[in-house]
Specification:
Helix content is about 30%, strand content about 25%. It is built from 10 helices and 10 strands. The strands form 2 sheets. Strands 2, 3, 4, 5, 6, 7, 8 and 9 form an 8-stranded mixed β-sheet that branches. The two termini are about 30 Å apart.
């Protein structure tokens, strides 16, 4: 351990480490490079959206919550926000999985929301096309979901970005996240670490089973699992686990 520059405070942990047969690993920064990059900002037809880029940047720049790699990736574009002013904010939480900021410019007061694609889609009643036309979202909801799944299936993390106008003098609450207009998709990628397949193969030869734990959706989780050497990964979501008994979750190989 010392040759690998590891400090061991409890000697008994060496014995525990040596008897390990299951390793639970985070994905981001452990199996992947941990440096999230924005690949593209697209409208629902798959066209690059300059308005989507601007609005995503407004949201990421003016949010005052915790520092996170998603907002850092968006802010890397360095867009000029001259004339804009932050007015209010509804912070991100793990129930809504959305973040909203209220900004003003001249006589315009604009609420911009970004977050998990499905959670943003849930508060949208319309979407904006490439030429600026506003269309009822009901007739395109299925196609939006299909495009989201296509991106996820390729290993990209996808967020949604939406907006609505807010009347003068009013601050925003969670209840204002309704009747919004969807601008499109924020598509991010975080490549697998170089050499991670070899590391996982070494674990396998040592009799150690790897379990990957991630906050991404099941399609992204399956893709990164395949990238690091699991040709047919079994993916369990949080809802799957909640419905399983402890015995079923343990699995036959571990029970034996």
């Amino acid at each position: 351990m010392a040759t690998h520059k590891v400090i061991v405070k409890r000697l008994e942990s060496i014995e525990n480490f040596g008897s390990m047969n299951v390793l639970c690993s985070d994905k981001t920064g452990t199996l992947t490079e941990g440096v999230i990059r924005i690949r593209s900002v697209l409208d629902i037809n798959g066209n690059e959206s300059e308005k989507g880029i601007l609005y995503a940047y407004l949201n990421a720049f003016y949010q005052t919550g915790y520092t996170n790699p998603i907002d850092e990736a968006i802010r890397a574009r360095h867009i000029d926000l001259s004339g804009y002013r932050r007015v209010d904010e509804v912070p991100y939480d793990f129930v809504r999985k959305r973040l909203s900021v209220l900004v003003s410019k001249d006589d315009i007061r604009l609420m911009v929301t970004k977050g998990a694609m499905q959670n943003v889609l849930d508060v949208c009643s319309s979407f904006e096309t490439s030429d600026g036309t506003i269309v009822e979202i009901a007739e395109e909801r299925k196609r939006i979901q299909q495009r989201f799944e296509e991106f996820s299936d390729k290993g990209f993390r996808v967020l949604g970005v939406a907006y609505r106008d807010i009347e003068s003098g009013k601050l925003i609450t969670r209840n204002d996240e309704a009747g919004m207009t969807l601008l499109g998709f924020l598509v991010f990628f975080d490549p697998a670490k170089h050499g991670i397949r070899e590391t996982i193969n070494e674990l396998k030869h040592l009799g150690i089973s790897l379990k990957i734990i991630t906050g991404d959706n099941r399609l992204v989780a399956a893709n990164i699992s395949q990238q690091v050497g699991f040709p047919k990964p079994r993916v369990l979501t949080g809802s799957d686990i909640r419905e399983m008994s402890d015995e079923a979750l343990l699995g036959p190989s571990e029970r034996d």
